[in-house]
């Protein structure tokens, strides 16, 4: 569980730092844009406040609900976390290459019109989006996995943020150590595996709730890797692996990866078509 916390916070924080870094660099390249810096950090603080408010809202909802209602709520958030992860991966694949150019074009127009609040809005949206996704991801993982201590949670958050700052610094070296392209390629695979794990857990919850009938496992690979062991549990939570998968679990894997492959092919065809049009 702590490994998942570190990974999610690390990845989401790097994405937020990417947008904030672009905004800050744009402000710094011209002294006339200096007034925009306080709007930038105001937007960052507002985005953090929005994410914290969402976190408290989810905790309050959990406190109010009980019994089957709480189980349905938590299972729904497990699925929502998986959907958001997949959406994030494909959104970055589609917009990552033009993100910097699009942001700077919008900032240039805002500066000419004196609309400094646009910087606050962009920072707020970036931080609130990544922060809110992190909150939902973490809540979904807590609902899907075993209980974890408070210090482990805060420790994972601290390590994830520290690693994000370190990674961002390395990425800013210009690809001499680690490129943005490689970073997103590797982490998108890990995120898709993590989303598969969440969907698998969600379907398992539906079986436990009686919404999907239980059937005998199709095979047994506990001799190879037991998902009840410490190491196997980490692999299971990060990838959706099950040593004794039921038909519903195997069906989840097939449907999930088929849909992911279909969207990948569609995005690739669209990118190739756009490349041909611009060449």
Describe the structure.
There is one protein chain. With 279 residues, the protein is mainly α. It has one domain (2-278). Helices cover 78% and strands 0% of the residues. It contains nine helices and no strands. The protein has helices at 2-28, 36-64, 68-95, 99-112, 117-144, 150-171, 180-208, 230-239, 247-278. Helix 1 runs antiparallel to helix 5 (117-144), helix 1 packs across helix 6 and helix 7 crosses helix 8 (230-239). The radius of gyration is 21 Å and the shape is globular. The mean pLDDT is 83.
| Main β sheet profile | none
Structural class of the helix and strand makeup? mainly alpha
The residue ranges in which pLDDT falls below 50 over 5 or more consecutive positions are none
Please report the total strand number as a whole number: 0
- C-alpha end-to-end distance: 47 Å
Radius of gyration: 21 Å
Helical residues, percent:
over 70%
Shape: globular
Overall pLDDT: 83
Tally the helices.
9
Number of domains: 1
Order of helices and strands: HHHHHHHHH
Beta content comes to: under 5%
């Amino acid at each position: 569980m702590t490994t998942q916390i570190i990974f999610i916070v690390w990845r989401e924080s790097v994405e937020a730092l990417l947008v904030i870094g672009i905004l800050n660099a744009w402000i710094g390249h011209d002294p006339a844009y200096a007034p925009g810096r306080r709007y930038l950090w105001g937007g960052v603080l507002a985005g953090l406040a929005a994410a914290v408010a969402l976190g408290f809202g989810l905790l309050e909802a959990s406190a109010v609900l009980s019994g089957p209602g709480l189980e349905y709520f938590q299972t729904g958030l497990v699925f929502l976390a998986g959907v958001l992860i997949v959406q994030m991966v494909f959104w970055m694949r589609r917009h990552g290459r033009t993100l910097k150019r699009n942001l700077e074009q919008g900032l240039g127009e805002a500066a000419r019109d004196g609309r400094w609040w646009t910087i606050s809005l962009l920072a707020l949206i970036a931080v609130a989006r990544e922060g809110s996704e992190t909150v939902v991801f973490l809540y979904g993982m807590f609902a899907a996995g075993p209980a974890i201590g408070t210090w482990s949670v805060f420790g994972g958050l601290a390590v994830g943020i520290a690693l994000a700052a370190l990674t961002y610094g390395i990425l800013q070296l210009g690809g001499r150590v680690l490129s943005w392209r490689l970073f997103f390629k590797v982490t998108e695979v890990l995120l898709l595996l993590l989303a598969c794990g969440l969907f698998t857990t969600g379907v398992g919850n539906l079986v436990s709730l009686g919404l999907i009938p239980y059937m005998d496992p199709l095979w047994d690979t506990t001799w190879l890797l037991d998902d009840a062991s410490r190491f196997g549990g980490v692999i299971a939570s990060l990838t959706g692996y099950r040593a004794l998968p039921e038909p519903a679990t195997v069906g989840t894997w097939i449907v999930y990866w088929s849909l992911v492959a279909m969207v990948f092919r569609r995005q690739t065809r669209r990118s190739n078509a756009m490349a041909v049009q611009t060449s």
